[in-house]
Amino acid sequence: VLCASQDFDFFYFVQQWPGAYCDTKHSCCYPKSGKPAADFGIHGLWPNYKDGSYPSNCDPDSVFDKSEISELMGSLEKSWPSMSCPSSNGYRFWSHEWEKHGTCSESELDQKDYFQAGLKLKEKANLLQALKKAGIKPDDELYSLESIVEAIKEGVGHAPGIECNKDSAGNSQLYQVYLCVDTSGQDIIECPILPKGRCASTIQFPKF
Ligand code: 5GP
Ligand code: 5GP
Ligand code: 5GP
Which regions form coiled coils (predicted)? Predict the structure, then answer.
C-alpha cells in the first residue's frame, strides 16, 4: 500500500541545549571531535502536519549516504553534534535524522540540501544571541518561560515552541527550541501549531 506521507505542511527546526541533554537521566557523551561549544546544536529538521501529527521513515530505499555530505562535515560537526552515548562522529545521528525525517521531505530537499538547510537555518536563528540580548544566559539561573519566548520572538522574528526536561533534582529546564519553517526549508514562519512543551512557568537555563 502506498503511503501518502510524502507531502507535509511545514518543518519544525529543532535546536537542543547540550547542557540540558547532559543533565537528564540518560547520560551524554561528547562527540569524537571533542566537547561542542556552549551553544545550541541542531537536533533536526522535521516535516510536520498542521494538525500536529507527522510522517516518519517515508522512504526505506533512501539510505543515508555520507559521501553526499562530505563537504558539510566540518559544519555539521560544529553545529549538529551528537550528544548521545556511546561517543560517535555524528554519522549515526545524522543517518537517523535523514532516514526518520529527511526522507519525508525528499520531494523538496535531497540529502545534501536537507543538511545544508539545517545549517543555514541555524545561522538565521541565533538563539544564544537573541537570549543574551535579553540578559538570559546559561548560568543555572531561573528565567520565566515567557521571557525566553519573548527574547527569541524579538531576535528571530517568530515565536518559538519551548520544550523542557527535568534535571536530576526535578527542576524544569530549557531543553529544545522549536521554530517553524516553510516547506522549502528556507524561511522561518509563524508556527501553525506549537508542540507540547511540558515547561513550568519558571525554568532553569543550565550551564554547559
Ligand atoms: P519525544 O518522545 O522525545 O517527544 O520524541 C521522540 C522523537 O519523536 C523525536 O526525536 C522526533 O524524532 C519525533 N518527534 C517528537 N515530536 C515530534 C513532532 O512534533 N514532530 C515531528 N516531526 N517529530 C516529532
Ligand atoms: P507525545 O505524546 O509527546 O505527542 O508523543 C509521544 C511520542 O509518540 C513521540 O515522541 C513520538 O515518538 C510519538 N508520536 C506522537 N505523534 C506521532 C505522530 O504523529 N507520528 C509518529 N510517527 N509518532 C508520533
Ligand atoms: P529523534 O527520533 O527524536 O529525531 O532523534 C532521537 C534519536 O537520535 C535517539 O535515538 C537518540 O539516541 C539519537 N541521538 C543521537 N544524538 C543525539 C543528540 O545529540 N540529541 C538527541 N536528542 N538525540 C540524539
Answer: none
Give the ipTM of the model, two decimals please.
0.85
142 bridge partner residues: 204
**pTM reported for the whole predicted model:** 0.92
How far is the C-alpha of 153 from the C-alpha of 159, rounded, in Å? 5
Q: What is the pLDDT of residues 122-173, one digit of tens each?
A: 999 999 999 999 999 999 999 999 999 999 999 999 999 999 999 888 889 9
Domain 10-204 fold is: Ribonuclease Rh; Chain A (3.90.730)
Contact present, 78 and 39 (Cβ < 8 Å): no
Give the nearest ligand 3 atom to 18 CA.
Answer: 19
- In short, whether 56's Cβ falls inside 6 Å of ligand 2 is yes
Give the Cβ contact number of residue 110 at 10 Å: 14
pLDDT value of residue 167: 87
Query: Separation of 101 CA from ligand 1 center, angstroms?
Result: 10
Buried b (16+ CB within 10 A) or exposed e, 77-86: bebbbbbeee
Can you give the residue ranges of every domain in the chain? 10-204
pLDDT tens, position by position, 63-90:
999 999 999 999 999 999 999 999 999 9
